[in-house]
Structure formats: C-alpha cells, structure tokens
Amino acid sequence: MTEAILLVGGKGTRLRPLTVNTPKPMVPAAGVPFLTHQLARARAAGVDHIVLATSYLAEVFEPYFGDGSSLGLSIEYVTEDEPLGTGGAIRNVASRLRSGPDEPVLIFNGDILTGLDIRALVDTHRSSGADVSLHLTRVDDPRAFGLVPTDPTGRVTAFLEKPQTPEEIVTDQINAGAYVFRRSVIDEIPAGRPVSVERETFPGLLARGAHLQGMVDSTYWLDLGTPQAFVRGSADLVLGRAPSPAVPGRCGDRLVLPTAQVAPDAKLTGGTVVGHGAVVGAGARIVGSTILADAVVEPGAVITDSLVGAGARIGARTVLSGAVVGDGARVGADNELREGVRVWCDALLPAASLRFSSDQ
Ligand code: GDD
Ligand code: MG
Predict the structure, then answer these.
(1) pLDDT at site 147
(2) Known catalytic membership, residue 162
(3) Alpha carbon distance 31, 233 (integer Å)
(4) Do 212 and 98 belong to one domain?
(5) Residue 120 sits in the same domain as residue 179
(6) Cβ atoms 74, 47 nearer than 8 A
(7) Does ligand 1 lie within 6 Å of residue 137's CB atom?
C-alpha cells in the first residue's frame, strides 16, 4: 500500500479561481477537474489512499470525488479552520495516515502538472535511505520557486525558498512540489500552528543533519499558477505532452466533449478543448484554448491560447489571444482582446469596443 497527501489549500492568491466561483483544482483541464489528473496519476503509480488537505472551499471537492472509489482510490478530506501552511497542512492530516513510522508517504502540491515517474521517486527514496526525497526540475528563472542545490550524489545541501538576492541564486534546480517523507518525519512537524515545509521544515531538517535526497527529473513539468499556464497545461494534456490517464478521450489536436456542437468548417487545433454543451460556430478558428461548458463561440471568431469560461459568449469575428474570459461574460462581435486581459465573470463588452489594430 502507498498513500499520499495532496495539498490543495492555502491563502489562495495563486490559486485564485480563474472563474470566480470555482477553485482552481476544480477548473476543468482537458475536460475534467484538474485535480482528477493528479489523482489518476497517483493511482496509476500504485497509490491507493489519498488525504486531501484543504483550507478553503473544501465543500466542492467531496461532492465530486466522494470516497474516491470511481478512481479506484480511497480519498479522505481534512479541512483546516485557518490555513496552516504547507507543513502545518501535512502535520494536520497525520492521524489519517495508515503507514508505519518507517514507511514512505507521498506528498504533492495540488497545482502541478507533471509527467514525474512517481514510482522512481519512491524507489530513489528507498534506495538512498533518505528521510525526505524531493522531485527537482530545472527552470530558466528559479526566483518564484524553492531552490534546491545538491551534491554530486543528489543529496540536498540547502533549501532556499523564493530567493531574494542574486547571490542566493546558486542553482537552476527547483523544488517541483512532489516529495516522499518517511512517516515519522511528518509526525515530528509541530502540530496546531502554521508551518511552512519550505521555509521551516526543510531548512530545519538540513540543519540537524537529516538526509534529504533530490531526484532531478526533466520530464514535463508545469506550475499552473497563472491562467495562461492553466490553458497551456490543458492543451498539453490533450496533445499528450503531459501524460494523464484521466483525459476523457484519445490524445490529439482537439478534445470535443459529448453534447458540444462544432460547425463542420470550424478549425480546432493545438490541444483545444470544447466542453459539454458548448457551441462553436461556422468558420471559427480555435488554437490551444479551453472553451468551458455551455460557452458559445460565434461564427468567424479566432481564439488562441485563451480560456473561455462556462456559459460565456464570444461574438462573431472577435479575436482572443492569451485572454481569459470569465464564466458568463459576453464579449460582443468584432472585438480584439490580447495578452493578459481578463474579462470578469458576467461582464458585458459591447460589439466593436476594443481593438489593438488600426481601423479598417
Ligand atoms: N491545505 C493547505 N493549507 N494547502 C496549502 C496551504 C495551506 O495553508 N498553503 C499552500 N498550500 C498548497 C497549495 O494549494 C499548493 O498546492 C501547494 O500547497 C504549494 O503552495 P503554493 O502557494 O502554490 O506555493 P508556491 O507555488 O508559491 O511554491 C511552492 O511550489 C513550488 C513549485 O511550484 C513551493 O513548494 C516551492 O518550493 C516550489 O518550487
Ligand atoms: Mg504553486
């Protein structure tokens, strides 16, 4: 038996819903709530018991995933009264764990899409005899992450969360948000107060000579911290670049969910998803985008790398590129919305209100 803790709470700034009422772990990526991919990947790696550690909007998870049996899992839910931080959240669910003191427990940040070989991380943990093993990945700009330098054997030498000064940027290896803890290490985290595993637990363990082992794995990895990253991740799931057993359908250029209606001459490419009940009109071109349930894309719209929320409407010939349109918003015909724009849920944008290009 292998068990895992999935961290899906926090103050919610980076997890802020893309669409006002849905916490990000529940926003569909490739047609199913994002969390489903993490759960299904853990199951495929032999995990059978998962504790979901949450601190807000907890009531949305349990009605959807229930006891986990539809995914072949046993899922439990624990909600913090106040966010306890990553380490506090882990400690807070210790009583639900079934592993013995020396057995491995997996822990996952709930906002990561990755092709990590989970079994290989557990094997590394077992063979190295480490107290904690961490999945590490390399990124061009590590400043938004936890930096994790290692010695030539992969043993972790320091943990520097969100480095502030150039001198602190000592490596491009970062904490990828998946760990194996020896169960007894979890029990040693102080209970009943906020603890950051990154700022307190890992540096503390290192200071007292504990063995932290890094496993650098350069498989697919994406932090879904921004809506743009979320859209990218969804497209990569559809394209098969990000492996997940939970994609409902075959991987390819597009995923059209049952009851969606797509005009025969509309072009869907680059991992585009069209949700249940959504409508895509004649001549629309949609590339690498997520169109959520019951949204309407009118004829001739051109949508690239964008998210269109549930029940939103995109007018005829409107161009979206790198845009996020909230649930229920209406963007009239002949608009042009570009990189970074967010149209709030239920907002109304009249026809021909916004353009970037010159008049024609
Ligand atoms: N239950 C619970 N309670 N979960 C929490 C809490 C809390 O108080 N605080 C954070 N979490 C969960 C988040 O939901 C997320 O899934 C995970 O813990 C990490 O928190 P983030 O707030 O997303 O942290 P980050 O992205 O800035 O940094 C973390 O992830 C990076 C990789 O993406 C750190 O672990 C970095 O070291 C790491 O590089
Ligand atoms: Mg994060």
Answers:
(1) 98
(2) yes
(3) 12
(4) yes
(5) yes
(6) no
(7) no
Buried residues in 137-169 as b, exposed as e (16+ CB within 10 A): beeeebeebbbbebeeebebeebbbebeeeeee
The CATH code of the domain that includes 18 is 3.90.550.10
- Evaluate whether residue 58 is within a structural domain: yes
The minimum-distance atom of ligand 1 relative to the CA of 174 is: 39
In a domain, 357, yes or no: no
Q: Which of 7, 137, 169, 202 to probe ligand 1 with, by most ligand atoms within 8 A of CB?
A: 7
Q: Would the CB of 201 count as within 6 Å of ligand 1?
A: no
The pTM (predicted TM-score) of the whole model is: 0.94
Low-confidence ranges of the chain (pLDDT < 70): 1, 11-23, 359-360
Tens of pLDDT, residues 282-311: 999 999 999 999 999 999 999 999 999 999
Our mutation pick for probing the ligand 1 site, out of 82, 86, 216, counting the most ligand atoms within 8 A of Cβ, is: 86
